[in-house]
Specification:
Elements lengths: L7 H7 L2 H13 L4 H15 L3 H6 L2 H10 L5 H15 L1 H11 L3 E2 L2 E2 L8 H14 L2 H14 L1 H4 L3 H5 L6
Antiparallel strand pairs: 1-2
Helix pairs in contact: 1-6, 2-5, 2-6, 7-8
């Protein structure tokens, strides 16, 4: 039996509590996610039996804590939180991976629009990351790439299958 399709929501469930906390904090700190933040506030209100107005008025720490403890998020929110987490907390690791692949980047952000990794470099680049960073972080990052853009990062499929899951 094959494993279920990897989605941002499933990755959220597999994150460690610390990863979720950091992702939730990055989510609330991002100025460009106002619409997503409203959706998250409504979800928290529904799950925690609060009024939406109450959730919106909470300070960042409380909103972070509430979001981080939600067992599931819609794919769109989970995907946004995953991207923001990596941009806020894991840029060095992103840059190291792209360097190992020979992909031009600026502080972990790919410069070329259609840059694709050399399949022969993916395994060694992932192995190098595992030497430098915790396995849970590497697994989450590579799985995030794979579920965000399976066409470009499909070569990661076998690599992530052999990694310990995040969480």
């Amino acid at each position: 039996m094959s494993e279920p399709l990897l989605t941002p929501s499933r990755l959220w469930k597999r994150m460690t509590p610390d990863q979720r906390q950091q992702a939730a904090r990055a989510f609330w700190r991002d100025d460009a996610t106002a619409d997503d933040q409203v959706q998250a506030a409504l979800l928290i209100a529904q799950q925690k039996k609060f009024r939406p107005k109450t959730v919106v008025a909470l300070d960042e720490d409380r909103k972070t804590r509430h979001l981080a403890t939600l067992p599931t998020l819609p794919d769109s929110l989970a995907a946004r939180a995953l991207v923001l987490y990596h941009l806020a907390e894991r840029r060095q690791m992103m840059g190291a991976f792209l360097d190992a692949l020979g992909i031009a980047h600026e502080n972990g952000l790919i410069q070329e629009e259609n840059a694709t990794p050399d399949p022969a470099k993916i395994g060694p680049a992932a192995a190098e990351l595992l030497k430098q960073y915790p396995a849970a972080d590497v697994s989450l990052y590579l799985n995030t790439l794979l579920c965000q853009d399976p066409e470009t990062w499909g070569g990661l499929q076998d690599v992530v299958a052999s990694l310990p899951s995040a969480g």
